[in-house]
Input
Amino acid sequence: MGVKKKRDMQVAALTICHQDLETLRSFADVEGRNLASLLLQCAQLTDGVSQIHYVKQIVPFLEKIDKNGACDPVVRSCFSVLAGIYLSLSLKNPLKKVLASSLNGLPEFCLTEAIYSFTFRLEEELNTTDVYSYRKVFDNLSSCMESFNLGRASVDNLLKSVLHFLQKSLVEILEENRKFAGNHIVQTQLMNDLLVGIRVSVMLIQKVQSFQGNLWKTSSSPVWQSMCRLLSIFTKFLSDDDLLQTIQSTSGLAVILFVKTMFHPSEKIPDLISSVLLRSVDCTSVPEWFMSCCKSLCCASLPASALLFLCQGTLAMLDWQDGSMGLRGEALLLDTAHVLFTLNSQIKEATLEMFLSRILASWTNSAMHVLESSSSGLKDSLSGNSGIAQSLLEYVYTHWEHPLDSLRHQTKIIFKNLLHMHQLTAEGADSVTDPFFLELTGNLLRLEWHIKGKYTCLGCLVESIGIEHILAVDKTIPSQILEVMGDQSLVPYASDLLETMFKNHKNHLKSQTLNSAWIDQWHETWVSPLLFVLCEGHLDQKSYLIDYYLPKLLNYSPESLKYMVQILQASIDAKTGSCNSRGALGALVACLRTARAHGHLQSATDAWENLVSSARIKQGLIHQHCQVRIDTLGLLCESNRSTEIVSTEEMQWIQFFITYNLNSQSPGVRQQICSLLKKLFCRIQESSQVLYKLEQSKSNHELENESRKQHPSDSLQQYKKFMSSICDSLFEALFPGSSYSTRFSALTILVSIAEVFPVQEDGVQTVYQLSHDIDAGRFQALLECFTSTFEEVKTLAFDLLMKLSKTAVHFQDSEKLEGLFQAALELSTSPKPYDCVTASYLLNFLIWQDALPSSLPAYLTQQTACEGGDQSAAVVEKNALMVIKCLMENLEEEVSRAENSLLQAAAAFPMYGRVHCITGALRKLPLNSLHLVSEWRPVVETLISLSYRLSAVVSPVIQSSSPEGLVPMDTDSESASRLQMILNEIQPRDTNDYFNQAKILNECDNFNLEDLTVSVLTLDTSAEVKGKEVKTCDVTAQMVLVCCWRSMKEVALLLGTLCQFLPIQSAPESSDGLLTVEQVKEIGGYFKQHLLQSRHRGAFELAYTGFVKLTEILNRCPDVSLQKLPEQWLWNVLEEIKCSDPSSKLCATRRSAGIPFYIQALLASEPKKGKMDLLKITMKELISLAGPTDDSQSTIPQVHALNILRALFRDTRLGENIIPYVADGAKAAILGFTSPVWAVRNSSTLLFSSLITRIFGVKRGKDELSKTNRMTGRQFFSRFPELYPFLLNQLETVANKVDSDVGEPDRHPSMFLLLLVLERLYPSPMDGTSSALSLAPFIPFIMRCGHSPVYRSREMAARALVPFVMLDQIPKTIQTLLATLPNCTDQCFRQNHIHGTLLQPSPLHGALHRPAVLATLTTEPKSQRRRPGGPWECWTIFPV
Output
């Protein structure tokens, strides 16, 4: 709704070197009328925008001189200066484009001199020898060849030099990159330079005219030799896995382009490339230069990635238009498709999968170009029923629900192009009756509606063949789609499909009839089902329809609003709604709200008078259903015009709404109310500016003549009264004891008012100022909000106070000020955790308001303020420094006391509050641009030292084997000795040797119960208590633990904040940073120690938060030693995990405690655009450790590996990079479940659970087998092909043991996991029986698993069987199951076998309609039917 201000264009000014500047001065005339004077005036400007105007005058000036003037030394020198200016400008500077555009219009008689000058200057650039300056030369070459005639001519003149420079620069950049291995920042820069160099090489071939002839194609030509060297370089890049994949991809383009340019005759290029792609190059038939440059491409061991990028180059660099390559081109097209389909089964890396999808989409585009003028044979090969088309369909079905959005988008393009390809091969046949389209439509409609790919493909199908055929198959399709719109994950897909359908249907109906009678049919098909759902549907469904579908419908057909209102008005009295249903009134209000928000209601008057009455509006504002109230409020607040005047009636209704709706218990409702009211306030602010302008531009007489319009001053006065009344109501809601929801709503709305109507300091008129309505009582009410136990309320109150003007802050006197500060200090040591949060907000408020006690400036040793800077920022920094020093002084004293008695500290002065307040004050400062650096440096050093001391005090408790049950009590008289003995007792004892031998207590470990009795601590109360009144406090284990883990938490967050925001010194003695390299390393060591040794989850989880901040900084740090720290830490911990040393302090219980968090932080901070080498190596190590082993001593590394894998698979930041390891992780989890060690089985179960979530998605409902958390067998085994033979073999092993006739059947433990995976698969109508990944082999084994002696396993086997049986095979499968039941005469049978067999037909029967199954069963001949007679004749379980 807000008006976007036009952003001012920022243009960097051009600069001229000293020598050129002197040249211009020497040639400039006194009158300033020649070209040198013009350029000199331009160079003296400091504004790039003004320089653009001077640059545009150059060509008009040259057009005025005569032809002989082009040889004038002045003009010649000016051309040289212009060339220098052009080459000195950065690539993205608008001045460079303006200069090129202007020089393109040079008179013809000036071109020779201009080209000479540019050629000379460009040749100087090509002589650059600095590797880090090559990027600038690349950029200049690129800009010269891009729409710049002089530049392209200069490059053409210097072709030999340019090729030589490119060859030299690419080699040197690669060598420089290898020298800086491990330095991510330098390597990233060099990789980008290398990529730009390759792109410039490709552009050179495409843009320069010299390559169009054949004169240079001789082995003795320098151009030819340089081309061969470059081709050899690109071939090496193509197979170099150490380079970025974007570089390899661009190298693939360059290889094909260079081969295309160099190879002769051109007719045989398709044959050569085809032989390379098929790995069948005949070395005797290809030119010698090709074998010399591209020898690696001719071998059979070409990597899959290189082959993929060659396919990309083939499709992008060859000319596929109009079938110019003939039959050979068609053969190459088909060969490329086969290579891509082969690669599809081999590639599993996410980035390569993305490349493959784009290349397949590119292939379909090329195929469409070729089909426009192709042979009949190619049309047969690419028709819808061909093998290639079916392979493309299979790819679409497998990837249409891929987790990557971009890959799903490419899948849609492939499917859309496939339909177009078939239409091109059909040569004008009717698409509606085409067998391919009929079969495809039927297959798609048979799919369940929870499949997202169904919507995308149906949308493409509608665009190709129209909606009429689909509606003829099933008229209820619109209602079916509306039915699934209660699922948020499906709503965007469903709404897009509906939009495509109703647009196509409307166009079809309009083309069929000449009158407007078609609109009734259209409304009946698309609008009536919508209105029914809006009145009768469930809450989520209606909400999503209003948000997604209704706006699209009204935007396309605004005239339908009248139809909606008529229908809803007729039924509004009968269906007013309730607390659980919106009714017709809710539907009506929702439609009107959407229409007004999108500009389909011209004004408020139209809505109130013509469409809905005032009584209906009030009824909606206090409706029982919360969403009806929200929609009614939205109808009042929202408008497509931000300057629309708010009417008096609207303001009255808003006031009426606020009275009854501030105390909403729903967070979502509160958020919507606050958002809508902020939109209303924006309308008031924007429209008030319009009213002020009207008031100034028109006289009172003119305004009085407009009788129907209200005077602007009256409207402004109404605005002011309305805003004041709103604020009165909101402050009244902040009374002591008001609920959280009321306070949250009131404060949020007040903050919105303060944001929309800010304090104006430049004299700009504003209709309202919140500061004017703040008195001492309201200021006190806002301060009291700091005492709320909800941090959201504290945050809102603080933000509101900070937005008020200084005059609105009412401090009574210095005693009040001192009292507030002392209260904050006391709260910072309160045993109640939320009190320290209150203290932090209160101290920050006093800091920013410059309202600190007069005693604090003594903490400063430097009293100078920043010069020329922001004085308010300097005051805030000074105040924060004073407060932090004060807190540090108190903290240091308390840490010293805690070192003597931790129990006294836990009860009387828990230290975490002080640290929390220090962190809160630091976060409000711009730590990377502090002014009092000399004051801050010792403060930072002391802070780090204090953090270590505090951590050393509390870490023995946190690192205890059972911190939750620890009750360390000491008396005042014996605090030092007793605490030391207790801390010795609670030292971590669960090291690895404790897994192998029993713990034997020493005599010194024995305690008398009297020594652990609860002591009474005498605490001094505040000075307000007269005399020495004694207050007793019982110290409990919970108090000690809370003090310890919260202290560890705050220390971790403080150190993380320091690392994240403070600048690091570039050199040991430099003054440009506040943190030294050694301090950063020490902090890293601190995090490592506590993450790997802490046992309490709260402690290591928050230490992980701080450690993540540190690792992110290390990877961006220019210091190489810091960059390599994460890698070193990772190798160290992996070695410690593998060695299984009994002296190791790694925690093998509590799911490995902080070890997974530690490794997770190190891997997640690795740059995602790199090769992710750390992740790859770590996953290989962990998977090898997680596998089964015969060595009983190595179970602890296995447990650690399983727990770490679980954390990594759950980490969303790793994204698709972790997917290639899912199959190996699943194998480790299933095999680990068979381990005899309980710890391994437990960790395997947790890992398997995280893998199920990673594969099938997060479960969003109570249904364990939700349709949204499943996938087809084809999808599953295509993404994880290694699991197909593994699961099949494991299932066979389980089935053989369960169904064994020898002895007692084995209760195989992995059966549960296997069935858990298999029951989440389902067959697709697209699955063919010839598929290599057919689900049919699993069926007999699942049937046999139903014989398990475990009841739960029999149930799961019955459910798991359903997905594997095709719909048309269900009756036959049921008959097969029933045939396996024993006869009544059999003597040897097992009841578990019978029960499991009887369970399996029932779920199968549920997959079909009951009459159809019964009809199938009764068609069996009577002679073949089983005779009833046994108690297990259970096909009677199907009720008729």
The mean pLDDT is 81.
